[in-house]
Amino acid sequence: MPSFIRRYLDAADRLGEILFGLIMALGVTGAVRLGLEKPDNRALFVGIFGANLAWAIVDGVMYVLTALFERGRKARLICEVLKAPSEEAALQQIGDELDGPLLELTTTEERLQLHRWILTVLQRERPATLHLNRDDLLGGVAAALAIVLATFPIVVPYLVVSNPDLAVRCSNLIALILLFLLGARWGQIVGGSSIRIAFGLTVLGMALVLITIVLGG
What we know:
This protein has nine helices and no strands. It is mainly α.
């Protein structure tokens, strides 16, 4: 299953899905507990896991819709470039889409050469008909699975700890540990300070936990 997720989600997407899932789980933990007069482990497990599963499904659907939207946006851009009144206008549209931090390292002539090469490619290709494909759907499934797998350890205490209050605290602790590990991994990938990012995400998680405690969670 992890290999399936890695196949359809790049590192940034995986980290983003896991981060949103963990933060959502922390918030849901407090919200579910506040909604129960006499919380018990079964009710907490069903409520929290159900909410996380629902969020995973919604996020998977959003992944598919976002992929479809992005491909449609690119197809529209290609059409606009091909219908541009002049080569200069077409090159300007390509530049508006592509120019960013990395291309700022190039000279004006180098960027213009790249824009011309892309225009040549677009002129011999035509945008495909917009439709959902297999990779879109499998990417959505991978996004949902990433959230479910990342947040499942958070609900394990409700299965093994008999005291509901202690189970909630253990669940929160597991979520904070996962946030720290996620931040450390994030720092490794982006080349930043792993410890600083790890502590930053952990502090964010602690803030969410404290808010729910203050509100009675």
